[in-house]
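lol ok so funny story. i was supposed to be doing the assay writeup but got distracted and ended up predicting the structure for this chain instead. priorities right. anyway since i did it might as well share w the group, maybe its usefull for someone
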Amino acid sequence: MDKKSIKSKPHKFGTFLGVYTPSILTILGLIMYLRFGWIVGNVGYFKTVLIVLMASSITFITGLSASAIATNIKVGVGGEYYMISRSLGLEPGGAIGIPLYLCRTLSVTFYCYGLSEAILVLWPESQGVLPSYALQSLTIFFIVLVTALSGKSAKLVLKSQIPIMIFVGVSIIALLIGVLTQELHAPISKATYQTAPEGFWYVFAVFFPAVTGFTAGIGLSGDLKDPKKSIPKGTLAAVVSGAIIYLIIPLLLAITGALTLEQMSDPDAGVTIWTRLAVFGPWIVYPAVWGAVLSSAFGSILGGPRILQALSMDGLMPKFLSKLSKSGQPTVATWISGIIAIAAVFLGGLNTIAQYVSVLFLTLYVAVNVSAAVEQLIKEPSYRPKIHVHWMLSFLGAIGAMVVMWLINPFAFLFALGLEAMIFIYLISKKLEQQWGDASTGIWMHMSRYALLRLNTKKVHTRNWRPIIILFIRDLKEHMQLIKFTEMLGQNSGLLTISKLVTLEDTPELERRNEIAFEMQKDLDKAGLQALTEVNIVGDFKRGMYQVAASHGVAGIKTNTVVFGWSGTTEGRIQELQIINELSSTGKNILMVHINKPFTNRMNKRIDIWWRGQDNNADLMLLLSYLIRLNRKWKKAVVNIFSVVDSEEEKHKMEQYIQFSIREARIDAEIHVLVKKGKNVVDLLLEKSSKADLVFSGLARGNDNIDKRVKILERVANSLKMVVFTQNNGMKNDIPVIFSLTENNLK
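and the output, tada:
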């Protein structure tokens, strides 16, 4: 049993084989052999050095940023995608990771296609014209070969790169010996642009992909023994050693007298420049070129499936794609990647597609640098990397990468941003569940901290008043209609917190309090509602409700309104009124809501407000009716203001006062002043508002005759579609005084 487990355990790699070797071999790839002569011939030695330094600086900064992130977290499968998703979040990570996977997969096609072309160049003319299908057939053969080998064993693939690296190293030494043993002259310094009339930046854009291979090692993060140690060391070593080699080669090409400037700048010369200059030219250079291209293909076929595996593990792709073989390889993901690479052979126009792939790949640089910069800026206590990179340096790397994207192809640049924006928006709409903290949360906390500190220094004026509401519920799903109504009161302006109280005796709920709050949030998301959710631990419900409501909120967003649902039992209703009476002294506005019929989609709704000129409750009721009409489904609602007086003389005065007040408040409402004529106020309310969709009525203060008050409230609540008993306990200037009548006005 132990032997089997040991045998099936996937092999882990160190810094040299797992990171440095694939990275340096991808850097020292096809462009080094094909384009260095053309670059020196067009821009001269000194501008070539400038191009190398500029390009290597961008990759070095990105390597530093990647190293900073890698030394701060435990890096898992997925390389760059894993680091970005754990830093910026699942949605930004997916927006980068999905195109990155396609880029790596298509790169397999490009490299195998290039390898086939490089081999078929040697097709002897004596054998006649090469068949048209030969190039595609050989390309497919190489794709199947690299896919099969990488699907079988990453160890086998990485070990096969050692002899390839030796061949590449020998070819560079052969070039050095060949140049130094022939005629030499002062370095070519003049920029002629003979075959590059587009200028310096065009040449820079052609060269830049030569330095982008340093992330090949990062892509194998899940296969490393110690990613925190290996990724920084291997990546930075590959970037630096690649830059040194890239500074030596142009010097050799610039001082040789064996080739003319015209021969050097010939775009069709390609690898023949090396074969002419190096000792044992074709015998050493061609195998080195083939090996370098094959190594790049191996790097892509190893990295791509691991990104797909990570996307699958995070729920962004089907779960079966993360299935591993007995040797620990993502075999399913590898063969699917191979199939996509084979399909790409028949696309045609691979050179054009290659530009789009390069630009999409460069968005990875932008994301890595932005991730490191954001982590540094928000100063998360958990961000403690061993390699510290100043945020300005990381942003400089991001800007540099974006400039290169534009230089390569402006249309591809816009396409890349548009594609990733679409993926990001789609993933946001999916409301994915994330199991880790990220920098986006830190950004919001940073902004919230700043906003709260600013709010705390300012007095909240009546002009800035908005409903900051806390709603107490026992079960969220059972009270969804109440939540919909309460959320509507503060939509786009206020803030609703839904609180579930748990006593110390409720052991199961006590242990799951964080999970319960999160489940409540998911239920709200499904219903399309926005609110904060929290679980509060209390000694008993009555005292706990008072304590939570009285102290709820922070700085300039202290809770100013408390909402209760109308209890289902008489005992519960008595207890509610007692709690409300205690809360009255805290300055919190009280709303006690009872809903008999659920909301309908009928647009022409009716809101009735009942007020008798006491306690300024009408100020709050009219303001709440205005807030409700901001909702799309209630904007055509008709507001009726009902008031009851004792005589015709008082009726005329009341109508004038109400008319004046609503005109000053710029609120449309129909006024109905009723004379009692011996009728009970409750009877009048039930008679006039029986067809209203929503009724606001004042809620008296005090604990006198609670049993009698409960019976009256029960009668009203059970007879109407929906009623909100309102108590304005705010200080005089806590809410905008939009309807101000007092008992003195009635006299």
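Confidence is low (pLDDT under 50) at residues 1-7, 731-747. The CA atoms of residues 41 and 265 lie 4 Å apart.
back to the writeup now i swear
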